[in-house]
Design goal:
77% of the residues lie in helices and 0% in strands. With 462 residues, it is mainly α. Helix 2 packs across helix 12 (255-283), helix 3 crosses helix 9 and helix 3 packs across helix 19. It starts with 14 loop residues before the first helix and ends with a helix. Bound molecules: phenylalanine. Phenylalanine (PHE) binds at residues 25-26, 28-31, 105, 108, 233-234, 236, 239, 241, 327, 330-331.
């Protein structure tokens, strides 16, 4: 690459380190907090089905493309896109894609730290034994008390941002790589344990029907946009995180194998989380569509009434916070690595700068749960707007542009060389990336804007 480096570009210590860090970035609040609640809001089974289809045919090929672009450029996403464009002899305006991604990550972190703060607040509640013998109404009060308290929320938001910046400032971190190694299996293990606890509950059957028995009449155009957006959000793709992580990846590792492994573990954790939450919802006659508070108003009921519940609750929320943490650090990696690659700025300064900005923006999300609760635009408060704009519009758009670049702009010889796939699998990747993924994103977004394309196509065939 022709771009000059001021600081040397780092590299993961091994292939495993890349997979662990990327899985850490992918598995987070998106799986445990967001997936159950948006599934609940969008009617269950049919939503899950659309989400799984989006993962398989749109998100996975884009994930492979994004890792590939990062590894080939060995630069931050902004300069990296410029350098890749030059290498293939196309417009260097492609670096704008890196800019859009870095801004998206910054915006996501602003509200992600707020929710991570909720997780930390619940860790404290769990440690104090406050879930003991919890009932549906007592946990609802606990949650609404927290929401109504801007100062407490602000404190946790600030702490979440500080620990995020702390790790980003330290750089590609060994401690976190190791933490991810035991955390992911442990999180999966605990979720399985909680599913086991729920199997005999009266809500288990209804929950399974809710999640896996699709009722397509419940599927709205917005639900499809949300499912697609979440496929990007949960894998951390479409904004340069995975590109930045890929740029630290050793050359000998297989891009596609790593991508598929990450997609599978991420999906398993999300489905398990749903299988923990919904039995509780249906056993206690709660509303599955109650929104962002869902896990905080259901889990404590189960945790507070099971044997060893006190201990399990603590371990569970520790894992939630760590999962959120390994994701939050990845969101500003594109912006921070741009600043350090491009300017005479150290990692510490760059991380503090970006973290402070995201913290400030996040204050508005904190307030949107109380003081600014009634200030809405398109029926959404500030937090809801930020989430909708980033997850459901900016990430799919970014992902689509990544696909277009990887398939149509980059020379095919380069993608063949980077992916090192057999001719048939390379073709399959190319077809999905060149045609299926971009078309999927366009159709879903236009449909969400009210063009009803999907309905019309369905009518054509029925
Ligand atoms: N994938 C993360 C999660 O599921 C969120 C995330 C989005 C992380 C975008 C990085 C970039 O929680």
């Amino acid at each position: 690459m022709t771009e000059s480096h001021i600081h040397p570009h780092p590299q993961w210590s091994s292939r495993l380190a890349f997979i662990l860090a990327s899985t850490g970035a992918a598995v987070g609040l998106g799986n445990i907090w967001k997936f159950p609640y948006i599934m609940g809001e969008n009617g269950g089974g049919a939503f899950v089905m659309v989400y799984l289809i989006c993962l398989a045919v749109v998100a996975t090929p884009i994930m492979i493309s994004e890792i590939m672009l990062g590894r080939r450029s060995r630069l931050n996403p902004i300069q990296g896109m410029g350098a890749l464009a030059r290498e293939s002899g196309v417009s260097s305006h492609w670096s704008l894609l890196g800019w859009m991604g870095s801004i998206t990550g910054f915006m996501i972190l602003s509200y992600y730290a707020v929710i991570m703060g909720w997780g930390m607040a619940y860790l404290v509640q769990a440690s104090a034994g406050n879930f003991e013998h919890a009932s549906a109404s007592s946990v609802q009060v606990m949650f609404s008390d927290l929401m109504a308290d801007p100062e407490r929320l602000l404190l946790w938001h600030t702490l979440a941002m500080i620990i995020t910046v702390f790790v980003v400032a330290r750089g590609v971190n060994k401690g976190l790589e190791t933490a991810t190694r035991w955390m992911m299996p442990m999180l999966a293990g605990l979720l399985i344990l909680l599913v086991g606890y729920n199997i005999s509950s009266p809500g288990f059957g209804p929950a399974m029907n809710f999640m896996f028995d699709p009722d397509f009449s419940k599927l709205t155009p917005t639900a499809i946009v949300v499912a697609l957006g979440h496929a990007f959000f949960t894998l951390s793709i479409g904004m340069g995180t995975i590109m930045a992580y890929g740029s630290y990846m050793p050359t000998e590792a297989s891009v596609s194998r790593a991508a598929i492994l990450i997609v599978l573990s991420d999906t398993a954790i999300a489905l398990l989380a749903g299988m923990v939450i919904f039995p509780i919802v249906f056993s206690h006659g709660l509303d599955p569509g109650q929104g962002p508070g869902l896990i905080f108003q259901t889990l404590p009921i189960a945790l507070g009434n099971m044997a060893w519940g006190h201990l399990i609750a603590i371990v569970f929320f520790v894992l939630v916070v760590i999962a959120a943490w390994t994701s939050s650090i990845s969101m500003i990696e594109p912006a921070v690595s741009y600043l350090t690659d491009r300017f005479e700025i150290g990692r510490i300064k760059a991380s503090i700068l970006i973290g402070t900005g995201a913290w400030l923006l996040g204050v508005l999300s904190v307030l949107s749960f109380n003081v600014l609760k009634n200030d809405t635009l398109f029926g959404k408060n500030f937090f809801g707007l930020m989430d909708f704009l980033t997850s459901n519009i900016m990430l799919p758009l970014g992902g689509m542009l990544i696909a277009i670049f990887a398939a149509w702009q980059m020379r095919r010889a380069y993608s063949r060389e980077e992916l090192a796939l057999g001719p048939v699998t390379w073709r399959l990747w190319w077809l999905l990336t060149a045609i299926v993924a971009p078309l999927g994103v366009i159709v879903v977004l236009l449909n969400g804007l009210g063009f009803n394309i999907i309905d019309r196509v369905v009518q054509m065939f029925t």
